[in-house]
Amino acid sequence: MTKRFGLDAALFSVKAYMASMLAIYIALSIGLERPYWAFLTSYIVAQPLAGAVVSKAMFRVIGTFIGAGMAVIMVPVLVNAPELLTIAIGAWLALCVFVSLLDRTPRSYAFVLAGYTAVLIVLPSVDVPGTIFTVATLRVQEITIGILCGSFVHALVLPRSVSAFMLQRVANILADAERWSSDSLLLDGDPAIDKERQRLALDVTELHQLSIHLPYESTRIAPRIRTVRALQDQLSLIMPRGAAVTDRIGQLRAAGSISAEVESLLADTRHWFSRLDAMPLGERESAATALQERSRALEPRVGPDSSWDELILLSLLSRLASLIGAHRDCRLLAEQLSTPSTRPISPRASELVEGRRGRELHRDFGGATRGAIGAFFTICIGCALWIGSGWHEGATAVMLAGVFTALFAAAPDPLAPLRAFFLGTLIATLIGLLYGFVIMPRLDGFLEYALAMAPMLLMLGTLMQSPRWGGIALPMLLGLGSPVLVSDQYVGGFAGFVNGALAQLVGIIYAIVVIRLLNSTGSHAAIRSTVRAGWADIAERANLMSPPDVRAWINRMLDRIALLAPRLAMAGRSPGQPLYDALRDLRTGVAIGELRELRLALPPTKRGPLTEVLQKVGEYYRGLDPDRPAPADPILLEDIDIAMTAVLNDQDPDLSRAGALGLVSLRRNLFPASSPTPKALAA
């Protein structure tokens, strides 16, 4: 988001420092005993984008109130039954983690916070249950002050706009997508194009995450979320369409069947892609229409005598026209986003935006269940060890372990941020010793305190924006929020400081141990689960008799591809082949949707061959094993060719064309190495 150690990072650090000092000052002014909660919260909600700060603040306020309310409900009822209280707080945290992992948007932060806020309030109050309401009220006040200060400063002092950032990202994404699509039209195609094109899955996911913050934008009229959703839909079409075009060009090139007219069309389309950014709306629309009409004019008429090369050419030209339309619509929607007015800039823009709804995401119930179980056992086992040891600061260790298991349950590798937290906390402890027992005894008043803390906080705030150092800088900042360093008066207490720091380190180590034990195969299991979900989705879609929702299918598959990328990288595996398989599955699902639509259009007496193909495809995907994926049964290839012959012999040319497109795609996806001229289609 920001250049490392650049002006943006420095500005962010200054604003975060101002917010933290303002939070401490207000907390001290109204007599709160634990101003460090306000300090910590101001840094936790800090974001470089104004809308993201405000939305995160709202989610945090909601989560804090709900968590505090649950704490007030649980403790008075169960304080005399510590075992039940432990189970109750563990179950509450597990429920919140489960829901947050299913939500998978920035809103999930509210559920996470509701879970661990209750933990932060309940565990220290076990010995004094009569004060639970007071403790909960004070905690809400302290955290709310930090939230409001962070939101106020970041949103009003030289704010960075979510809208402006999104528009810049959209421009970059479109430039990349157009370059990839242009390269995919080269007759000597580069195999690396598929890998680059898969970055679109990550880009679409990023746009979805950013759009959550648009309603909280403070610097301009935010783009309509429906327009962002429509843009995501069109970007999503580019991946399967572009991959299909690349495949068909390769097939025709190998057979030497690309005519001069088709070569000219491909060259002109590449030229159109290269000029999209500079073309005005009217010229862009008319050029796209002309290219699509040329594509349709070059389509061979399919029938019983069609050769395999003619069917491949039909597929190429049809997918090319669709790819051109997707890029045209992406540019149109990008212009709509950048227009301050909510009025559509063209009838086509209105049509694209109309009826857009939320993006369909992959929901991993298995992963959410594993995360919830981990959170539950972290609390229950930790409380047993704490009570059994008799260590008073053990409550802090259990609290932090519960917080960490909740915060990092969605991470591809939760151990990586925990290791960074351990190192950052250890360094913060050493720095805290210097501040707490060398510098602070010499300070007098809040102004001197603020000036003394400025160098360290400003440096760490800048490092927060560095991809390399951010994982260590944040825990260092949080470690400096010790009660000894942020208090209404200097208390010293070397033993208490060391004991508290030791509890923090033990809590992190305990969280690492629990996560390692409960998720020994976490990365591999997550990969398997994501791949299986895609295959199960294909199997279910193949057997449905209702009209297909291709848009929802593409959204879910792109989300799965985006989830797979970091997990495969973390596992030390090359992302190329597994993600290419996911791209193949994406195209298969689109082809299934086309065939289902065709089946609905056919009279019942003609549906048999297509139904047989779809049933066999469902059986194939339902029986796949991620560890040992088997090739499709050759009998399915024969059924596809039989269905192809049936649709090509149909008297309705539109049905023949639609059937050929779907079956050619299915055949190329499932049997890419099969003979290019099946017996049933011999000319």
Quick overview:
This protein has 683 residues and is mostly helical. It has helices spanning 7-29, 36-44, 50-78, 82-103, 108-122, 132-156, 162-184, 192-197, 199-211, 225-255, 260-275, 281-298, 308-338, 347-353, 365-389, 394-407, 415-439, 446-463, 470-479, 494-518, 522-542, 550-570, 576-601, 608-622, 634-648, 653-670.
Describe this structure in words.
The protein is mostly helical. It has 3 domains: 7-160 and 361-518, no CATH class; 164-216 and 225-341, Four Helix Bundle (Hemerythrin (Met), subunit A), CATH 1.20.120; 522-681, no CATH class. The protein is 73% helix and 0% strand. The protein has 26 helices and no strands. The protein has helices at 7-29, 36-44, 50-78, 82-103, 108-122, 132-156, 162-184, 192-197, 199-211, 225-255, 260-275, 281-298, 308-338, 347-353, 365-389, 394-407, 415-439, 446-463, 470-479, 494-518, 522-542, 550-570, 576-601, 608-622, 634-648, 653-670. The protein is elongated. It starts with 6 loop residues before the first helix and ends in a 13-residue tail after the last helix.
